[in-house]
Amino acid sequence: MHPLLKPSLRPGWHDLNTVQFGVAPAHAVVLSPVDTASGSFLSLLDGTRGLPLLREEAARMGMDEGYVDRLVARLAGAGLIDEAQPADPRARALRRRPAALRRLGPDLASLSVTQRDPDAPLLRLTARRDMRVQVRGAGRVGAVLASVLSAAGVGQVDVMDGGCVEPGDVSPGGVAEAQAGRRRSDAARQAVRRAAADRPRRTRAAHRDGTEPPLSLVVLAPRDGLRAYFPDEAEAEQFLTTGTPHLYAGVLEATGFAGPLVLPGSTPCAGCVLRHRTDRDPRWPRLLAQWHSGGRRRAQACDLALATTVAGLAAARALAFLDGHAPDSPGVRWETSLPALNWHARQLWAHPACPCGAGSEAPAEGMGEHTSKQAPLHATMAG
Ligand SMILES: [Zn+2]
């Protein structure tokens, strides 16, 4: 092992025996007691020395025999150590691609903060390269979201949409102005490629027998936000049948939202949402049918900054899922509306009668949707 004290968590001494690593409360760790000798020894944990060399250094400084192992174990137990030279061959291969790693350096540093296991940051970044994500929708939200996933190291990002690029689809990081008139899916794919020129080529991401790798995630970010806010049950059925996790995101009438992330059979799906809404108001399907009809011709109230925010938030949620974090809040849709931009988490519930099965054990008196009391999300978002 070549222990590296997590480089992005800033150390600060409270007093002679107490050190805090990290400023932001979510990931800061306070270690106490730490003696003065250990304090100076910490600077040697920069990833350039293996354990044998560190033991020699410790012996030279007059430390007892088990000192280094105890210190490293204690720091690793507090989630403060990265492995600088991982044994995994693919992680080592990534280490040998300095251009890619330099570009993804801040992403790797972020994984270093969020992952406790010393090997995990490089392994997670490596694993992203084998992931395949499909984004449905190449408008202001979808194209940017797809580009962000690609730039963050996801190996294969497929974008699907119909029609041709209109001037209103153009956004920084998404579809470029010069692509107006081209097919939307082609233009978005070009944006995805532009976002990460160093990502593996499509042919390398495919399986050896020529088939596509299975989808890790589908993101539904249609240009008409209504189709993600109250999604079509029929469109979701294919994902439920294949057990494909899927995430909704969009902007609807100056309200931006990300979620829910649907884990088929476990968390509420489009059908669950529709059934709960219809339980509360039997006229609901009639309203929805009116709203859905003619949607394509309607002007979309989709503020560029809000769309970009939603794309980033949804991409972050997608990456957290792809990196193996179980969703803290399954069935939650984060929402914010212009101009106040207060965030709130709307809890959606699984429905016992939905064929997806997520609600089969849920209490029958589920309330459909309501605004969650749990989340002072605005506080988190505002920092
Ligand atoms: Zn359902």
UniProtKB/TrEMBL annotation:
State any single GO MF term: nucleotidyltransferase activity
Q: Where is the composition biased (Basic and acidic residues)?
A: 195-211
Looking at the keywords, is Transferase present? yes
Keywords linked to the UniProt accession:
Nucleotidyltransferase, Transferase
List, for all copies, the residue spans of the domain called THIF-type NAD/FAD binding fold.
129-356
Q: Region labeled Disordered — which residues?
A: 172-213, 360-383
Q: Which SUPFAM superfamilies match?
A: Activating enzymes of the ubiquitin-like proteins
Q: Quote the InterPro entries the UniProt record gives.
A: ThiF_NAD_FAD-bd (IPR000594), Ubiquitin-activating_enz (IPR035985)
Task: Please state what the protein is called.
Answer: ThiF family adenylyltransferase
Q: Which organism is it from?
A: Streptomyces physcomitrii
